[in-house]
Amino acid sequence: AALRFRDRALSTSLWSSALALGLVASTRLLDHTELVAAWAVAATALAVLAELTKERRLQLGAYAYTGLALYYALAVLAPPAELFQKHLTPADGVPAVLLALAALVAVTRRVWDAPERDGLDKTLAELQRDARRHATWAAALLAVYAASLALLGFAQELGPDLATAFQRGHTAISTLWGATGLVALYLGLTRASSSLRLAGFALFGVSLLKIFVYDLSRLSS
After folding, report:
1. What CA–CA distance (Å, rounded) separates 45 from 62?
2. Is 114 helix (H, G, I), strand (E, B) or coil?
3. Fewer beta carbons within 10 Å, N or C terminal of the chain?
């Protein structure tokens, strides 16, 4: 594909076919966190290559691999339902979530200029500008989620039994969510940022809802 880069249509067909084959091969050779790591590295490499070559079509591959990493991490390795289920290894999916988060940040953090040679380029340029803003909030949510699973796993390591560790872990999670919401609210007020204020109110509200709806009914006094 690189050798035929001047022929854009042929080059695109070659590298997209190579990425499809790489996707199939990765699912055959790897699984669990290693598979997420491979997809995250591929997404980051494609984002860097797209910027270096100013070939916006490579962003499609970067977005696709990032989406796959996020889906596999959140749907298979660390589904949100696990946060409310008692099991021995609640933090096993944290590395996968962090790898997917890193890929999301790497792919969306930079906005660069390149000639818009067709309608697809124009669409990708607009998507690049919008994706950065949305990805920032998504990355923040993923970070809080990963920290919550890590707290649950840490409590499991320290707890005398599964039930006690689970309850202590959820107490720590409620504290984390409330504190994070208050920090976001404070920063929003001091920096006159309406988005941070809304995020702080939302997270603080979710933490209160969790306390009254889940903690008080499911956890011991």
Report:
1. 8
2. coil
3. C
